[in-house]
Each structure stands twice: as structure tokens, then as C-alpha cells.
Amino acid sequence: MSDSPLPSPTPKSIDLDELSAGLNAQQFEAYAHTKGAALVLAGAGSGKTTVLIRRIARLIAEGVPPEKILVTTFTRRAADDMSERLVKLLGEEAVVGLWIGTFHSHCLRILKKEWAERFGKEGRFDLADEYWQKRVCRAILGKMGDYKSLPQPPFGQNMKLDPKLALLAISTAKNSGFDCEQGETALTKIYPDWEEPQVHSVAKFWRCYEQAKQKEFDVLSKVPARRLDFDDLLVEALYLLRDDKKAQEEYLSKFDYLLVDETQDTSEVQWQLARLLAKKHGNLFIVGDVGQSIYGFRGCDPKRTVMGFQASYPNGEIIRLPANYRSQGTVVTVANELIAHADLDDRYRLLMEPTRLSAQEPWLSQHLDAEAEALWVVERLREQLSTEPNMAFRDFALLYRTNAYSRCFEDALINAGIPYQITGGTSFYNRKEVKDLLAYLQLSVDPNSEAGTEACKRILNIASKKFGRPTRSLGMGFIKKVEEQAEKNKCSFYEMLKKGVYTTQQEVAILDFRKQIKEIHEAGETAQTRLMAARLSGYDDFIVNEDGDSEDEGEGSSRLDNLDELVAASQRFFAPEAMLTFVGGQIRKAKDAGKGQDAVNLMTVHKSKGLEWRCVFVVGFAMNLLPHHRSLRYVDGELLPDSLEEERRIAYVAITRAKEQFALSWPQYHNAKALGPSPFLIEMPTLAPLVDDALRSQHKEDDDAQALADEEFEE
Question: How far apart are the two ends of the chain, measured CA to CA in Å?
Fold first, then answer.
């Protein structure tokens, strides 16, 4: 792509009739729209990406220079896919100069160019990536004495705070249009459930975090520079284009056509950017579906973007694409029933229209626990493959609300020899916190084995609660030294920790480590008791304070939930050795299971956005799982209906991934907690008879499946 206008290459010969071939009347209306603002309400499976691509191709084919067109997508993957399809339609040379990418990539490009021209060397900046953020957060939250050589503030503030939660809150506030000086106001508005001390703590952290990004405070870097995080790219670009008249004139004149995909998942700041860039020509073409807005934790509110369209553009055109070409009729009917309960402005509500006849009815099933649910899924999957010979493993997807729920299904698939792959995440036993906790278990069993040595090196620097600091300051240099001494003395790494000669500070740290392992060993004979002892000895605190509990960027997956899952899984074993052997086998089998391209797909609902499969299992469809307990809010013991809104849309997205068949299943108990079926089930009357059957069923198949699984496990 070019920053300056280039002579527009002549596109390869395009027959416009051929370009519009196959479009229905509503799709053609969107495709043919040229001047003025337009909102395209596009449901799941409506062919909206095809319409968007063909509209861009038509504009270029009719003579619009590609560098006069700016396209924003939700992900880089979507941008790459759109670019490839445009090249196939027009030829590579014809799309040179086209701006296509995410809001973040466009803003990065603008800031690099404009700041360099305006400020020279002083306009240089580096990205505040995850590694930088982690180090800086630790220094901000740490004790004053531990960071006395650094400027205070922003560092050494001695605060107890989950850094991941704080960064997520800051990101949401910035995307909603607030700055750090409005911290308390912003956080109180966005998180009404937060108590005043938490609001003040996060607001204080926010101000320190912004200060730490200034060049003079970038003292933890070898080459200090001003830092911008991903939210800053949006905010600073907005400030530049809004306040700098020269930049505003340049970029408002630069583009004649602006197209925004997935508008329901744009933030307030992104929406302001889009409207600003379209201010001069008014040719803003946005595509969205309020029913699929599932990124509220990023400051995305469809009521302020898609549903604010007519307020911003009173003369704008609204085009509906209700036809669903993806799913058979029953899937569409059930999904429509669910989303009909959403609190949406009827002007922007879109009910899908099926283009395919109704076929298989959904599968609904209640189970005692997630283990039984997973075995049921495996049996259903096997049955479907045996009765539908043209289906492959890749035609199936298992969708769950958060990553922690994958464990039982991974175990069941591995034991059944069914290949699977996890999209946008890591397999359960390879997650950092799971491997850490298993390392404690290994050391409580045999610290002198080869596995014990690897476990030692993994968690040696994680201090116990009694140590008083988050780490023991026994880094890679120390570990390498001990390794060399152990090899020289022909003993284990753990034994060398006892025999070696170290500084007083190192001796104190080693003694803390050895006492911690001894206490875990003496806590009890079972795997569960020792795992819990490891968590209580300080590991849970370390996870929250160092890495943050959130496993993702706000979808709801939790590291502590993963640890809860591991502890729950340990109940199946009495001896710790048996559990370690089982987990080792699962890890080896999982590697083999993921090697082939034909594999069952496992992922969170958020990661499934934009994808489709012939058969979809939506698992954990229970109260407090979907809807997820972290999203629910109560007043005087009463559930607030608005806290269900985004969770309902998540369920809607999950169901609409299915082309032929979908299943909803749920456990009655999970991690020793009683659950009820998801409240969304009663919102889909077509499912009522199936819900009744599922609730009445005694699930003899659970008992049979469990007996079979026990036989396989014993083998």
C-alpha cells in the first residue's frame, strides 16, 4: 500500500453484470450503493463479506482510484482474506494503494508518518507490548523499597491489584472515550458494581501507567522511548485528525470512500474515527449485526455505534440482508427465537430468513457433570461419523464460553483417539499455570528425577507466601550455574540446591523453596490435597499479582478457573504418581492428535466468530457457565436482566455457527457447584419438548459411557 497517490493501474477487464451475478435483491442494493452514508444490517450467513468485496471491486472497476478507498476489518485475518479475494477479482496491480486493515493498523500507519514529519526524532515511539506491560505493571505495583532506584511515582506504589484486570479496565475506558484524568468517573460508570476503594486503586494505577509510558520514565528499557499501547494508537490518531487542521484536511481529502466491517464490534473511539474520516465526502458504508455484538469488554456498545446510525446520518440509507444461506431452517428458527428477547431498537433488529428447509432437530442433553457431558459428545460425534460417511472430523466444532471448560472434552477426545485442534488458545495441560501447579506435584513426589529437575527449574523463582516477595531472585543465570554444578557433582538439580555454596540471599531463597516443597509433600497423600497445598502456599497469589487472573483479553477465561479444573480432575486419582502418569500420557497423545489437518475444532465462542461448521456442539449451556457468572449482576439478590444481554448474544453467535446440526448440553454439577440449565433455553420455544426430555432423562447412557471410559482408562 502506498502513502501517496499513485497513478491508478487499469484493472483487468471486469464485466459488471458478472460481478453482480448471483446477488439477491437486497445484496444488489448494498452492492450498487455509491454516494452517501449506508448501514447494511447483515445477519449470520447472509453473504455480507461477498457483498462488501464486490462493492469495493465495483468502485475500482468503475474508475475510483484504490488509494481513495479505506476499508476497516475486525481482524488482520479478515483483511488478508478480503485482499486475496480482491486480487483474484481484479488482479494484483489494480488494488495497489488500497487501504485495507484493522483500525489499529491504519492508525499506526498514520501516526508513524505524521509524527515523523512533525516532530522528527521526537516523534519516534515504540509499542507497549505485553512483555513491556508486564514488567512495568510489576514495577508500578511493587513495594517502594524494591524499586527505590526508580522514580516514584509512577513506580513502587505498593498496590494490591490484578494487573490484567486493571489493564483491561483501562482499555475499556479509553475505548469509551475517557482519559486517565477522568479515571474515577469513567470506572464508576463502566463498572457500577465496583466499590469505591477498587475504583480509586485502578484510577491511580491508570495515571501511573500513562506516566510510565513517557520517554523520561521508560527506565526499564535499554533504549528509552515513548510508548503507545494498542488503545493509544486509536486515541492519538483521533486527537491528531481532530485537532490538527492540516492532518485533518489531508486525510479527509485522501479518501472518498470509507467501508467498515463488523461495526457492531467497533468501540466509541473507532466510531468517532470513522465518522471523522467520512466527514467531508459522507460516503460511509458500514456493515453490522447488533445481534452479534459480543465485545462489550473492549468498550464496544452497539447502542452507540450501529444503533446510533440514524442520529449521526438522518438521511442515511439502511439496507437489510436477512437471508441466511448457511444454516438449515431449524437452526435459523431457534436462533431467531433467542435473539428476539434481546433489548434492541426495532429499527436495527434483524431476524434471519432461512433459504434452506428445516432438517434435523437439535440435540439437547443434561448430564451429571462435565465428564459425562464430554463422553456423550464423543459418542454423538462417533455416531454422526458412522451414519454420515461424507463427514470428517473437521466438520465438527465444540464451542464453550471460557477456556477452562475444555479440559474434560480434551481428555475424552484423547482417550477416544479422536484428533482435535484448539483455535486461539492452548491445550489444557500445556497452559502455563497448569504446568506450574503440576510441577509442584512432581516435586512433592520425586524431586530428584529428570522430571523433578525440569519442575525445579520451572518454579524455583516463584516465591512462597511466606517469602514476602513475589520472586526469589533466582533467575536463569543462577539456574545455569546450578545445572553445571549438578552435572559436575553427578547429582540432581534439587540435590545440588542442598549441597551447593551460595550467597546468603540465595541460601534464604533456596531454604524457602525447599520448605515449601516439604510442606506440600506433608499436606497429604492424595494428588488433590497436594495441589491445594501448593495453591495455598502462594501460587494463587503469584498468578493474580504477576500474570493476572484473566487468561485472555476480557472474554472471561480465568487462570484460577484452570487451576480449579485441575484440582477437580485430580479427584479421580488417589496417588499423585498416577495423576502425573496420566497427564504425561495425555500431553503425548494430544501432540499426536493435533498433527493431522483433519481434526475436531475446539474454541471459545468468541474465537468462533465468522466461522461455520456442519455440526456444532455448544457445551456448558448452563446457568453461570453460559451466561457466565462473571458477567451477571445482582441487586438485592435479584438478577439484573441487562447483565444477560451480551451473554444472550454470545449464545446466538454460537448457535448460528451451525450449518446442519447443533447440540446444546450442560452439566448439573461442575467443580462441586450445582448448576441449572441456561435461562436462554426457555427463550427458544421450538426447543421446549427437547428441553423437557433432557430434564426428565435419567441418562442411562451417562452410566454406560462412564463404565466404558473407566475400562479404557484402566487399559
Answer: 59
Same domain, 416 and 517: no
* Helix ranges, 41-120 (H): 48-61, 76-90, 103-119
Output the CA angle 321-324-327, nearest 5 degrees.
165
Catalytic residues: 48-49, 261-262, 292, 657
Same domain for 472 and 613, yes or no, is: no
| Pair (414, 438) in one structural domain | no
3-state secondary structure 605-662: CHHHCCCCEEEEEECCCECEECCEHHHCCEECCEECHHHHHHHHHHHHHHHCCEEEEE
Per-residue cell: 266: 467497533
What are the tens digits of pLDDT across the range 240-280? 999 999 999 999 999 999 999 999 999 999 999 999 999 99
Of the candidates 550, 582, 617, which is a domain's last residue?
A: 550
Q: How many domains does the chain have?
A: 4
| CA 56 to chain CA centroid, nearest Å | 30
* Encoded amino acid at 488, one letter: K
Q: Report whether pLDDT(549) > 80.
A: no
Say if 212 falls within a structural domain: yes
Reported as a single tens digit per residue, the pLDDT across 343-370 is 988 899 999 999 999 888 999 999 999 9
Q: Are residues 206 and 57 in the same domain?
A: no
What does the block give as the cell for 454? Answer: 525440569
State yes or no: 201 annotated in a binding site. no
Query: Within a domain: residue 87?
Result: yes
Distance CA 617, CA 367 (A): 14
Q: How far apart (Å, rounded) are the C-alpha atoms in residues 322 and 45?
A: 9
Query: Whole-prediction pTM value?
Result: 0.89
Is 581 among the domain residues?
A: no
Residue (of 84, 111, 619) closest to 378 by Cα position: 619
Is position 533 annotated in a ligand binding site?
A: no
- For residues 224 and 244, state if they share a domain: no
Burial zone of 101 (CB within 10 Å; 0-12 exposed, 13-18 middle, 19+ buried): buried
Q: Are residues 55 and 194 in the same domain?
A: no
Q: Is residue 447 part of a domain?
A: yes
Asked if residue 42 belongs to a known ligand binding site, the reply is yes
- Cα 445 from Cα 272, distance rounded (Å): 58
Mean pLDDT of 21-48: 94
pLDDT tens for residues 665-709?
Answer: 999 999 889 999 999 999 999 999 999 999 887 555 555 555 555
Quick one: 48 and 86 in the same domain?
A: yes
CA neighbor of 172 nearest in space, from 103, 235, 106, 259: 235
Say if residue 424 carries a ligand binding annotation.
Answer: no
Beta bridge mates, 260:
72, 286
Q: Are residues 210 and 281 in the same domain?
A: no
**46 is known to lie in a ligand binding site:** yes
Q: Could you tell me the residue range of the domain that residue 495 belongs to?
A: 432-550
